[in-house]
Specification:
CATH topology: Lambda Exonuclease, Chain A
Strand content: 5-15%
Number of strands: 6
Helix content: 40-55%
Order of helices and strands: EHHHHHEEEHEEHH
Number of domains: 1
Number of helices: 8
Structural class: alpha/beta
Distance between the termini: 78 Å
Largest sheet: 6 strands, mixed
Radius of gyration: 22 Å
Shape: globular
CATH architecture: Alpha-Beta Complex
Length: about 300
């Protein structure tokens, strides 16, 4: 019998290879830095948030702008190549994304939706003519193997640099206002872009020409701006030593997350998170950082 040919063969058992966890720059590292308790509640314990306004706002803006870039490239309909989306186009893309998010039980009130739609229209009008033709890729996935884990992130836009056509700029859209220099989020945003730049360098061998954070809420308000507001963008320095500091900061945060996972103990945030972060948190009534701000009361 054929199986007897293998009788007596012995293969040593090597054991299970360790599985490397994947850590997202925004969904893991920055979220943990913002509030370990909230990170554990939603990312680790998988509770579903009862309020999704903040998630809806950021997601709908990013996805509609991604469609605007694809519109200009002619990737949705070839006939639109080289043309800016009209307000009607933006509204159609917004409704498509809104419907898709509803299917995932992510929604928001009329006021939030109206503001998000208006911001995207204003961005399209103000930035589209100078940006869209330079875009080479959107939602660009970057990652690097850090031996013990995989660090990854999505860059919203890779655009050809007008200063150096052989290089690119990396853009990241934020559905917030530019924080003050003293705000911890200010430094976190800078670290984020420096890490993105390093991941891009590892994948392509070239450092981006520039890293740009665009704060879309600078376009909000009752009067529509006619040009880019002064507080709309933050250009991030890509100095090698500062990039190394950012990478070390993120590596230390991943180590903290791993320790928290191992022991099941999640620390309170060192500093109180931004109000909009606490406003949507289902733990806000039983939190040492915000308990006084959200007193319990009967409906």
């Amino acid at each position: 019998m054929r199986w007897t040919h293998y009788d007596g063969m012995n293969f040593p058992f090597k054991g299970n290879a360790p599985v490397k966890r994947r850590y997202s720059i925004t969904a893991d590292v920055l979220s943990y830095q913002l509030c370990p308790q909230q990170y554990a509640l939603y990312k680790i314990r998988k509770y579903e948030a009862s309020m999704t306004n903040q998630l809806f706002y950021g997601t709908v803006i990013h996805q509609v702008l991604d469609r605007a870039h694809m519109h200009y490239k002619g990737l949705l309909v070839p006939a639109t190549a080289g043309t800016l989306p009209s307000n009607l186009d933006i509204k159609r893309y917004f409704d498509e994304v809104d419907s898709a998010l509803k299917a995932r039980r992510i929604s928001a009130g009329t006021k939030v939706k109206d503001q998000a739609l208006e911001i995207v229209k204003r961005f399209n009008r103000i930035e589209g003519p100078s940006l869209y033709h330079r875009v080479v890729n959107t939602e660009c996935r970057l990652q690097t193997d850090k031996t013990d884990y995989i660090l990854n992130g999505n860059v919203d836009v890779l655009a050809i640099s007008p200063e150096n056509p052989d290089s690119v700029e990396i853009w990241d859209y934020k559905g917030t206002n530019l924080p003050s220099r003293g705000d911890p989020q200010y430094q976190q945003y800078i670290y984020q872009m420096q890490v993105y730049a390093e991941l891009y360098r590892k994948q392509t061998g070239k450092m981006p020409q520039k890293a740009i954070l665009y704060f879309l809420n600078s376009l909000s308000g009752p009067i529509s701006p006619t040009c880019r507001p002064g507080n709309a963008i933050l250009e991030v320095t890509l100095d090698a030593s500062e990039v190394d500091t950012a990478m070390n900061n993120f590596a230390n945060t991943v180590s903290e997350i791993e320790r928290s996972r191992d022991f099941g103990i999640w620390a309170n945030p060192i500093q109180t998170p931004p109000k909009e972060t606490c406003d949507i948190c289902d733990k806000r009534w039983n939190c040492p950082n915000s308990g006084q701000v959200y007193p319990m009361r009967h409906p």
